[in-house]
Design brief:
Layout lengths: L7 H5 L19 H14 L10 H5 L5 E5 L5 H9 L4 E5 L3 H13 L5 E4 L3 H8 L5 E7 L17 H10 E11 L2 H12 L4 E3 L19 H8 L5 E7 L1
Parallel strand pairs: 1-2, 1-4, 2-3, 4-5
Antiparallel strand pairs: 5-7, 6-7
Length: about 240
């Protein structure tokens, strides 16, 4: 017997993990190029986690709008976005070591100077290294959907975390989410719509979902899904 999928409203109220974490550690082996990237490019692009306020201007060597990316995977989309938006600074959080190594390699080899990487949980980075109203934008693309109902409590996009994000985004700043799993898209929409500090930018009649912003590239997995007829849902909310 198949267990029915909970409604977005029920999922929105699902009990959240006592301690908010933006990741689940998974085993992964680094290639030799990724290992070398830590030594070769780490000093330039890695920002060590410290439980103290980050001097953003010193970290990037300039003052510019600051975008936080949470969970960049192997960093392909991150690198492309940073390249098409050279006037923005991107502070990127990821704990998966092969992914950090891969993005370090791209930053060094392609001279992507507007990325800095913190290999640490984004919640602690926000709470200790970034102040409230400090971010011009937040990107969270394709977070783990945790398909099984009993694992929904592990999903990242839940009310306590969204409230935390909203408090760190400047008025007028934005939150951009994307997922290729429709039940998670519905939960995301229900949760983020319930946050009073955030307003949906989607056009009327779009069902609450935004058109994909031009800066977000299609990933190889996304292209494969589109060819198979799978959907992708973008949500873009503005901090009020």
């Amino acid at each position: 017997m198949t267990t029915p999928e909970p409604t977005p409203e029920a999922q929105a109220d699902a009990p959240f993990m006592r301690t908010i974490k933006t990741y689940v550690l998974r085993a992964g082996r680094m290639g030799s190029g990724q290992v070398r990237a830590f030594d070769q490019f780490g000093p330039q692009f890695l920002v060590p986690y410290k439980a103290e306020r980050l001097d953003v201007q010193a970290a990037f060597g300039r003052s510019a709008p600051l975008i936080l990316e949470i969970g960049f995977g192997m960093g392909d989309a991150t690198a492309k976005i940073a390249q098409v938006r050279p006037d923005d600074n991107f502070l990127c959080c990821e704990v998966h070591e092969p992914g950090v190594g891969a993005l370090l390699k791209r930053c060094g080899e392609e001279s992507i100077g507007n990325i800095r990487i913190v290999q640490h949980d984004a919640v602690e980075v926000m709470d200790h290294m970034l102040g409230k109203d400090s971010l011009d934008g937040v990107h969270i693309f394709f977070p783990d959907p945790w398909h099984k109902s009993r694992h929904h409590k592990r999903r990242l996009i839940q009310s306590p975390f969204v409230q935390r994000l909203a408090e760190h985004i400047k008025p007028g700043g934005y939150l951009h989410l994307a997922t290729d799993w429709q039940p998670y898209a519905e939960q995301m929409l229900a949760v983020v719509s319930a946050e009073p500090l955030l307003a949906n930018t989607a056009e009327a009649g779009a069902g609450g979902y935004a058109n994909k912003p031009d800066y977000r590239p299609l990933t190889k997995f996304e292209n494969r899904g589109i060819q198979l007829g799978h959907g992708v849902w973008d949500l873009v909310f503005r901090r009020v």
